[in-house]
C-alpha cells in the first residue's frame, strides 16, 4: 500500500462515512465510486490513488456533499505532520529533562486538540445531516398541509356553488302557501261542478213523444 493510498483511506473513513465518492482526476476525467457493503476501504483507497486524483468529494446516499478535499493539500498536511513528529523526536533526545517534559506536554496538548477538532467536525457533520433531514420533513409536511388546504377550498367552493344553484331553482319556482292551495282546490272543484251540472240536466230532459 502506498502512502497516498493510506492517506486517502484515512480521509474517506472519517465520520460520517460516505455512501459514494466522486473523484476528479488530473486529466479532467470524473469518476463516481459507490461504497459497496463489505468492500474493504483499503481497496477503494488504492483504486482512487491509481486514478491520480486532484479532488475527492464524499457524498451521502442522497448525493449530499459531506466533505471535500484537494488531494495535494492532503498530502502536504501529512508531510508537515511527519516533519513535525521528526523534529519532536529529535528534541526528545535532548538530555535536558525540563525540555523533555515541555515536549511531552506539547505533544499531549496537540493530540488533545486534534481529537477535539475531529470530535467537533463529526458533531457538526451529524448536526448538519440531521438538520437537512428535519428541513426535508418540514417541507413535506408543509406541502401536505397546502394540498389539504387546497382540497378543502375546492370542496367549500363546490358546496357554495351547489347551494347557490339550489337557491336559484327555488326562487324560480316559488312554493304556494296553504291558503293559495285551498283556493286553487276550491276553484278547481267549482269548475268541475259547473261542467257536470249542464250535462246532467241534458241527460234528464229527454222527450217521450206523447201529446196531451
Question: How does this structure look, described?
Answer:
The chain is built from five helices and four strands, in the order H-E-E-H-E-E-H-H-H. A hairpin with a 5-residue loop joins strand 3 (53-59) and strand 4 (65-70). It has helices at 3-12, 41-50, 71-92, 97-172, 178-204, and strands at 20-25, 30-34, 53-59, 65-70. The chain is rod-shaped, with a radius of gyration of 48 Å. The protein has a domain at 3-71. It has a four-stranded antiparallel β-sheet with strand order 2-1-3-4. The protein has 212 residues and is α+β, with helices and mostly antiparallel strands. The N and C termini lie far apart (154 Å). Helix 1 (3-12) crosses helix 2.
Brief summary:
The chain is of the alpha+beta class and 212 residues long. 68% of the residues lie in helices and 11% in strands.
The shape, in one word, is rod-shaped
C-alpha Rg (nearest Å):
48 Å
The major pleated sheet works out as: 4 strands, antiparallel
Summed over residues and divided by their number, the pLDDT gives a mean of 78
Runs with pLDDT <50, length 5+? Answer: 205-212
Amino acid at each position: 500500500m502506498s502512502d497516498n493510498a493510506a492517506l486517502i483511506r484515512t480521509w474517506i473513513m472519517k465520520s460520517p462515512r460516505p455512501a459514494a465518492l466522486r473523484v476528479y482526476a488530473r486529466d479532467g476525467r470524473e469518476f463516481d465510486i459507490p461504497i459497496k457493503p463489505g468492500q474493504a476501504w483499503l481497496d477503494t483507497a488504492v483504486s482512487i490513488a491509481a486514478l491520480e486524483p486532484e479532488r475527492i468529494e464524499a457524498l451521502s446516499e442522497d448525493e449530499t456533499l459531506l466533505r471535500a478535499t484537494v488531494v495535494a493539500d492532503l498530502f502536504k498536511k501529512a508531510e508537515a505532520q511527519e516533519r513535525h513528529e521528526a523534529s519532536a523526536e529529535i528534541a526528545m533526545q535532548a538530555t535536558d529533562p525540563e525540555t523533555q517534559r515541555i515536549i511531552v506536554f506539547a505533544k499531549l496538548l496537540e493530540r488533545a486538540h486534534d481529537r477535539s477538532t475531529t470530535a467537533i467536525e463529526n458533531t457538526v457533520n451529524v448536526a448538519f445531516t440531521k438538520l437537512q433531514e428535519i428541513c426535508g420533513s418540514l417541507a413535506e409536511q408543509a406541502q401536505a398541509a397546502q394540498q389539504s388546504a387546497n382540497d378543502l377550498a375546492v370542496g367549500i367552493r363546490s358546496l357554495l356553488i351547489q347551494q347557490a344553484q339550489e337557491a336559484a331553482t327555488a326562487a324560480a319556482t316559488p312554493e304556494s302557501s296553504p291558503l293559495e292551495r285551498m283556493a286553487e282546490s276550491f276553484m278547481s272543484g267549482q269548475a268541475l261542478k259547473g261542467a257536470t251540472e249542464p250535462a246532467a240536466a241534458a241527460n234528464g230532459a229527454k222527450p217521450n213523444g206523447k201529446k196531451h
